[in-house]
């Protein structure tokens, strides 16, 4: 498996710093993440040479098909954690799971093969494809001129359409929606143990009825993004490939992403199209910044200092504040556009959301700029963030919406002070020595 050197041309760096970037910048970041996964797998492969040989053979047989496995977010998360465990001697993550990655790659490549794969939660998981439900500690996965078989205490034959359930086979199902002649296809990963490390994952797979709810929300959200948030739609179509269900929280929708699992958005059941579109606008920002940080260092180590973040209940390290500030450039930009398409109380709420998160992003961005921990590229990047926010300073917002924004912000700050026993000195942020 080969690597290449990645750079982010200045025009795309500037566009990313402004909070956007579009499809081309997203493709550059996607390419860098692919190389990162290849490098991690090479490192893990030293501890699992048989599996690595099969993976390399599969890529040589049909490279583009195998790339779908290499890019899968759960593969990146497992590879990062396993490589780190091997490098530090920390333990806890098995390089033997490379056999599952190699088997998935061989399946996608169409080649004949055979390899022993260890079991995980509920059977034999083939990343990016699905899970064969089998008892026992391991099974043989093979193809010998016919269908793929997973052979353990019993045998499961994989179906021709691997994205459809079959006896003994639980597929990673697809959600495909089309609007304005443009199709968005996302995989629902509700099986892989590494699909979103550390998250409150939904306990069960989505039922067919639940999947229909997600599909309907995705269709409407995709229509909304294409109609009013074109740059976000471009970035989502390139940089997002997987949705992972989280445990539902009554009366709220939660979402998250991980630097380890680029391309995955984890979320609870979307209540409506606007909320889901906002989730994409939020999480794609995290994905872009995380991927960019793998190519260009923007921050120097900031020690144990913690900072007030107007969108979090806990004090945040500078890196976390940076992630949040960049995400809320995207969030405030979303509401800036969306409020023009709402009516009545929804328009008031959207304007309040715009003003609240714009002010929060302005304050946090200034804290980051003044921190003294930015690298020279980081200074340029944050300057572009600040310039975008300054350009929105003269947006017309009603007094009622501003009052609501300030009430909500003040309530959050009061709750934060009580929770953490610290009084922020400014709305934007306060340094908290560790």
Describe this structure in words.
The chain has 434 residues and is α+β, with helices and mostly antiparallel strands. Among the domains are: 34-169, no CATH class; 297-434. It is 50% helix and 13% strand. It has 13 helices and 14 strands. A 5-stranded mixed β-sheet has the order 8-9-10-12-11, with helices on one face. Strands 1-4-5-6 form a 4-stranded antiparallel β-sheet, covered by helices on one side. β4 (138-143) and β5 (149-151) form a beta hairpin. α2 (22-45) packs across α3 (49-61) and α3 packs parallel to α6. The protein is globular, with a radius of gyration of 23 Å. The mean pLDDT is 94.
Topology:
Layout: H1 10-17, H2 22-45, H3 49-61, H4 63-70, H5 73-88, H6 98-109, E1 113-118, E2 124-126, E3 130-132, E4 138-143, E5 149-151, E6 155-157, E7 169-171, E8 173-179, E9 182-188, H7 208-228, H8 230-239, E10 242-245, E11 255-256, E12 264-267, H9 273-293, E13 306-307, H10 318-338, H11 344-369, H12 376-391, H13 399-420, E14 431-432
Parallel strand pairs: 9-10, 10-12
Antiparallel strand pairs: 1-4, 2-3, 3-7, 4-5, 5-6, 8-9, 11-12, 13-14
């Amino acid at each position: 498996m080969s690597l290449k050197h990645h750079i982010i041309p200045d025009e795309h760096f500037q566009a990313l710093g402004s909070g956007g970037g579009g499809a081309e910048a997203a493709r550059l970041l996607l390419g860098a993440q692919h190389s990162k996964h290849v490098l991690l797998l090479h490192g893990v492969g030293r501890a699992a040479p048989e599996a690595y040989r099969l993976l390399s053979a599969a890529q040589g047989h049909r490279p583009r098909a195998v790339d779908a496995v290499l890019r899968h977010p759960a593969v990146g998360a497992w590879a990062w954690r396993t490589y780190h465990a091997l490098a530090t001697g920390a333990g806890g993550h098995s390089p033997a799971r490379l056999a599952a990655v190699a088997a998935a790659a061989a399946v996608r490549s169409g080649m004949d093969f055979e390899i022993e794969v260890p079991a995980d939660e509920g059977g034999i998981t083939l990343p990016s494809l699905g899970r064969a439900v089998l008892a026992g500690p391991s099974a043989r996965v093979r193809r010998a001129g016919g269908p793929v078989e997973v052979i353990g205490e019993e045998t499961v034959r994989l179906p021709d359409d691997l994205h459809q359930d079959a006896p003994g086979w639980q597929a990673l199902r697809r959600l495909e929606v089309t609007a304005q002649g443009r199709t968005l296809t996302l995989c629902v990963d509700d099986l892989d143990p590494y699909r979103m490390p550390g998250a409150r994952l939904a306990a069960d797979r989505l039922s067919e009825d639940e999947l229909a709810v997600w599909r309907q929300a995705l269709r409407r959200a995709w229509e909304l993004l294409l109609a009013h948030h074109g740059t976000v739609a471009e970035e989502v179509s390139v940089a997002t490939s997987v949705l992972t269900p989280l445990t539902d929280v009554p009366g709220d929708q939660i979402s998250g992403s991980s630097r380890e699992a680029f391309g995955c958005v984890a979320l609870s059941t979307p209540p409506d199209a606007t909320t889901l579109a906002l989730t994409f606008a939020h999480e794609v920002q995290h994905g872009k910044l995380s991927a960019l940080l793998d190519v260009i260092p923007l921050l120097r180590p900031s020690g144990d200092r913690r900072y007030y973040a107007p969108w979090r209940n806990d004090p945040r390290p500078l890196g976390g504040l940076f992630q949040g500030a960049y995400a809320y450039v995207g969030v405030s930009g979303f509401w800036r556009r969306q409020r023009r398409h709402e009516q009545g109380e929804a328009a008031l709420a959207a304007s309040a959301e715009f003003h609240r998160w714009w002010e929060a992003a302005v304050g946090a961005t200034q804290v980051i700029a003044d921190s003294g921990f930015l690298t020279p590229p980081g200074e340029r990047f944050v300057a572009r963030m600040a310039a975008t926010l300054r350009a929105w300073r003269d947006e017309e917002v009603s007094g009622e919406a501003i009052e609501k924004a300030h009430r909500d912000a003040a309530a959050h700050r009061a709750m934060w002070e009580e929770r953490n026993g610290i009084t922020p000195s400014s709305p934007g942020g306060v340094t908290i020595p560790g």
